[in-house]
Design goal:
By secondary structure, the chain is mainly alpha-helical. About 85% of the residues lie in helices and about 0% in strands. α9 crosses α10. It is flat, with a radius of gyration of 28 Å.
Length: about 300
């Protein structure tokens, strides 16, 4: 009975994965509410043209990935799953939300096939023969593959945020020096952002340039950028500039003190990281010494016990 049940279970899992993939790729009639919500979301992110161009340039595989991403994004929107922290991480990495969701779904689909494949190898080696194992393996690998992109994005985003905070500290010093040279606050903010061509200063420069077009203040643009990227330093900077924007002396003092605070925080983080590495090296050295002592004591101990 088990010999018959196992192929049926494996076939059911594979068939379910194919059905889910086909349903995700099949065009369906969208409701007016979901269509308007999709257009508004794409307009707010400013990626409608870029998504269409990327899909047309990358061929059929890119169009399939874009279609899957759009449908999953619509499903998230209908369910009210905002995922703000994850969206902020993607914004820091300058990645598309739709492509990220498509990657998660496609990897989960691959996991549905990978689990039974691994069981087939184990079953061929006669290690296990339970018919329920491929079902659990398929679900397990699908869940693991689905959440793997989240871990990668959060790790990379944490590294880029750390670099961004360092750039913000230097940027505040440049703005303070520009204000001391007699420039106004808007000119000082833009001039300091034009010093470097790094990705962080480019994001700041683009936010300041967009502020001129949209008619909002530049510190409001910095606050919006901090909200988008999930960087508290930019939001705090926006709030402080909004309070002292009319007083040049207070602006310089505020920026200088904030830059100094960020440098002290960075130094504390570096010292903490160095301390953790030192502790890790100490543990490794202790383990090495313990192994060497065991290597020295073992022959003498064996002779004593043999006697």
């Amino acid at each position: 009975m088990s010999d018959v049940t196992m192929p049926v279970a494996v076939g059911a899992i594979i068939g379910l994965g194919i059905y889910v993939l086909v349903r995700a790729l099949m065009p369906s009639k969208r409701s007016a509410v979901s269509q308007v919500a999709r257009i508004d979301a794409m307009r707010a992110r400013g990626t409608a043209y870029e998504s269409a161009r990327a899909a047309s340039d990358s061929g059929r595989l890119g169009s399939v990935r874009a279609e899957v991403g759009q449908r999953v994004a619509e499903f998230y929107l209908q369910q009210g799953w905002e995922q703000r922290s994850l969206r902020a991480d993607l914004a820091v990495l300058d990645r598309s939300w739709e492509k990220f969701l498509a990657t998660k779904v496609l990897l989960a689909t691959a996991g549905l096939f990978f689990g039974p494949l691994m069981f087939a190898i184990v079953w061929t080696l006669a290690i296990a023969d339970s018919p329920i194992i491929p079902v659990w393996l398929a679900l397990l690998f699908a869940a693991v593959f689905f959440f793997l992109p989240d871990l990668e994005v959060r790790r990379d985003a944490a590294d880029k945020r750390r670099d961004l905070r360092r750039v913000i500290g230097a940027y505040l010093d440049l703005v303070s020096m520009s204000l001391a040279g007699g420039r106004g606050l808007p000119e000082a903010l833009m001039a300091a952002a034009e010093v470097s061509d790094g990705w962080a200063t480019q994001r700041i420069r683009n936010a300041l340039a967009d502020a001129r077009i949209t008619g909002i203040s530049q510190w409001q643009a910095l606050g919006a950028l901090g909200e988008e990227l999930g960087v508290e330093e930019l939001k705090d900077l926006s709030a402080s500039l909004a309070l002292v924007a009319d007083d040049g002396a207070k602006v310089r003092e505020s920026l200088a003190s904030r830059a100094e605070t960020m440098r002290h925080r960075e130094m504390a983080e570096i010292e903490g990281s160095a301390g953790e590495k030192s502790q890790s090296m100490l543990v490794a050295q202790l383990l090495l010494c313990a192994g060497f002592l065991v290597f020295l004591i073992y022959p003498a101990a064996m002779r004593v016990f043999q006697v």
